[in-house]
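Next up, a chain.

===
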Amino acid sequence: MSSVSVLNVNLYGKPIGTLTNLGGDRTIFAFTDEYIEHPDRPTLGLGFKDEFGELYTDFRPYQKRIMPFFSNLLPEGHLRKYLAEQAGVHPEREFYLLWALGHDLPGAITITPSDGDSWPPHAADGVADHGDDRRENALRFSLAGVQLKFSAVMEASGGLTIPASGVGGSWIIKLPSREFSGVPENEFSMMKLASLIGMNVPAIDLVSINAINNLPEGVDKIGKHAFVIERFDRLSDGSRVHIEDFAQVYGLYPEDKYGNGTFRNIAQVIAAEGNDADIIEYIRRLTFNMLIGNADMHMKNWSLIYPDRRYVSLAPAYDFVATVPYLPGDATNMKISRAKVFSAFSLDELTHLAVKAAIPKKMAIDAARETVQLFREHWDAEAPNLPMNDEVRSAVETHMKTVPILEELS
């Protein structure tokens, strides 16, 4: 088989651009003429707008890595290594990894070879030769993040099954962490609380690992439960809804998701591109995660969604986990507006963020006040009954008292 140097980038099943391997691990992206000239073209991402709001079309080549927007479609850490090993691809060869996993990516993007060839490419193109059978049967999906997770299908009986190829599921199964105990129970509890408070949370569940059908070989069954969340980028008929995370919006590689962005940056985009409901929802989520001590609210854990294919809204909530039981300390890992610690999340810090992000100050304060009051109410009523363990419950209760806004807006 001849080597493939061009991949089609498809949005909602239609080609809109190409990723070309120029040799020597150099790649470049280009839009098709048809997409550029389309007056009502669907939006690929906010980062493709120039300073005047027009489509940006002048892209530079990238060495070894693909451009950040597409790199963010790939998994990280243990999940990347696992899927790359399944496909026989070196995890750092992103062009080939995107080719291997491009059948089922986050949002409405798919990647296909331009000449119609299917996976696998020739081993000389940088892919380890593990045999045709293994590569043909590799898992072909990609989910962003480092945690081991799989796409699954909900059966008529209510059970969850992971498709043989990993492609086509409308639910995400997040397996227990190897490093920290009780993470699925923690995430379920925090997402349930957020839902009770009124935030936009997809359907969620906590299921026995033994009840998951077709769990891939080689996956350790650590712990008893898995956290399950319905995919908001998939509809019930299997069609795709486009999304992008804020690392994609700002053109950051995944490893820069903490240090090169701020919560104010996210607020500025939502204020400029969203509506009042999006702004209120953002302030509610920010306040909630400060109160539970979630230091993992990086740029990839906030996303935008394109319900009409052109204009954005804030995507539903995901990845709400209290990290203070595992990583004690005051650091938020991403700057709020001026400060980078939970103990600085005060009415003054929130007001500074609102002013700098061009958010109405009263709107921000009212949203935070309602969140604080509902948080207190539902924590007192529900925390003893939720499946988080005692260590998590105790750590959150100790932490919330160090966040000034809890007392200021009660």
Notes: The radius of gyration is 22 Å. The mean pLDDT is 90. The longest helix spans residues 361-382.
